[in-house]
Every structure is written in structure tokens, then in C-alpha cells.
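assembly run, all chains below
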Amino acid sequence: MHVDMDAFFAAVEERENPELKGKPVVVGSDPKEGKGRGVVSTCNYEARKHGVRSAMPVSTAYKKCPECVFLPVNYELYAEVSQRIMQILKEHADKLEQVSIDEAYLDVSSQKTYEKAKELAQKIKDEIRQKEQLTCSVGIGPNKLVAKIASDYDKPDGLTVVRPEKVLVFLTPLDVGVLRGVGPKTKIVLNKLGVKTVGDARTLSKKELVSLFGVFGESIYEQARGKATAEIVEECAPKSFGRQVTFAQDTSDKALILETMDGLVKDVWKQLRAEKFLFRTVTVKTRYEDFSTHTKSKTFIEPTDSFEAFRTLAVRLLKEFLKDERKIRLVGISAHNLKLKKY
Ligand code: TTP
Ligand code: MG
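ok done. output:
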């Protein structure tokens, strides 16, 4: 399954400012009445009716649609909304691969049937609409290539299912530019050979394609037949955050050791907060002057992001180590059992 949010930045802006409803909205740099530099990040479907597009110079967008509402990019806001959407997707997927701020592949193989996968897609769409007041378009297919083309097939608010036996029929009439890597330059070469659609591309032999495009020709050959082998790769969430320091000299100065630990706790906690993680387990590590290394851990019942809870527990665990008579060479702290914060 491939999920792609509709007119993402513009849709978030519309949601935040209801007075924009029904108006053409462009998100990007300031057009300064046609004299502005920079480009359009995206625009809503109303603005697209006027010919405005992503990556177009804002000056051009202004000429095409001076009555458009032009807004600056509020990237932080979109990133925050994106995180919440990805969390929703994650909860419904066997595996999730986020590929951009508004787009992800979901492995939903455990649904077993296309019918079930479609029901799941509808559920996801409903949940995103209800929780975030945003729409997305979803494609379902036997591989990433087909799923991605399918999500783009019926935008906005689409849901397109392409069963394996329908892949060829589905692809045949589509512009050859839907294939991965087939950009304007490749299209010019193909168009000269009379190849406009994916179906047309199938009339070229593998040999012909390779002589034209090298190894990429082979990819076009396979893609035109709806074949793709790329797996859904789940990004690795960090398992823990931690820091440690080795003292300049082995020490039994309790105040120094506690103060050092305090600094480490603050650093780790700031990192957790910045990346919006809750933690359940805190581990303190010490190495004594004889190089023997020990850890002590404690786990909260519920995930938390409380600085006080983190520090109190760290100090408690560290004090256990301070009962020993040996001098301390190194101290460290880490947080485990992480969970992304929900809103
Ligand atoms: P897209 O998914 O390509 O576009 P979109 O979500 O705005 O519209 P669509 O309904 O066609 O999917 O990109 C997602 C966001 O990425 C988009 O809202 C803004 C940003 N973006 C840019 O900043 N510059 C660009 O050139 C493109 C294509 C997107
Ligand atoms: Mg999008």
C-alpha cells in the first residue's frame, strides 16, 4: 500500500485557516507581486486549476493566478502533522517505510486478500480525516511500483486497488512518465520512437531499451510489465539514547560524579524531547578504576518523558554504585524502551 497526502502543505494551511476554504492557495516563497524569486512548494487543487504547480517559480505562479493566496512555508508545522500521520500508518502496517514528509509504503501482506487490504485503506483514510481533517490518496498493488502509481491515479482522496491479474491492463494506457526514473529527457527519446504510454513501451525489446538507455533500459522493460523487486524497508527507530564520560582522573568525589551525571541526564533528555520519544527504562553504567564495568537498570510501568523522573532514577541507580570503595573511571546514562510520543 502506498499512501500520499493530498496537496499536503496547502491542505495543512487550509485546515489551520478556515477562511482559506474554497480559495486557491499557494505555499512557497513570497511572490512580491510577480517580482519575487524562489519557487512554489505546493498549491491546493483550486490553484492547480489555474495552472500553478510545485517547483514553478513563484513569479510565474503569480502571473497565472494573482488572486491566489500566497503563504510562506511553515515547515515545522507540517513536520509535526506528518509525524502524527506516520504514527497512524504505523499502527496499521506490518512494516512502514516513510519515503517523504507526506508519503509512505505500508506492507499489509498479513491482510491476505486485496478486499481486506482495501477495507484497511478505507479505515486509514477515515482515521486521518477524523484526527487530522486531511485527505490522502491510497494505492494498493502487488509491489511498490504498482502501489505508488495507483495512489497517484485518482487524486485527491482516491483509493485505487490493482490486483495482480489487472496490473497490465491498468498500466497500458498510462503515460510512460509514471515509470520510475522516466523523466522529461527519457520521455523525449521514447516519444520519438512513438512510445507515449506504458503499453507502447512494451513493444520495445529489452535489447532495444538497453541499447538506448544502458542498464536503466532493463528497468524500463521490467517496470512496463509491472515488475518490481524492491522490498519495503522499515526505518530503524533508535533503540536507545545515551551518553557517557570518562573522568580525567579516576575519582571518588561524589559531588563531582553526581554533577557529571546531572549533565549527562540533561543532554540525553534534551535529545529524547527533540526527537519526541518517551522512555520506560533507564540504565546507569559505571566503570571502576580496575576497569570492571557494571550497569543497573530500572523500568517505569508507563512510558514517560519527565525530566524529574529521569534524573531521580538516574541518581538513585548511581548512588548504588557509589557505595563501592573503588574509584570511578567512567559514568554513563541511557534511556531504552522508547516510544514515539502521540498527540
Ligand atoms: P507531493 O506529495 O509531491 O505533493 P502534494 O502533497 O502537495 O500534492 P499531491 O496531492 O499531488 O500529492 O509533495 C508533498 C509535499 O512536499 C508538498 O505538499 C510540498 C513539498 N514539496 C516541495 O516543497 N517542493 C516540491 O517540488 C514538491 C513536489 C513537493
Ligand atoms: Mg502528496
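The chain has a mean pLDDT of 94.

Residues 254-274 form the longest helix (21 residues).

not gonna interpret more than that til we talk
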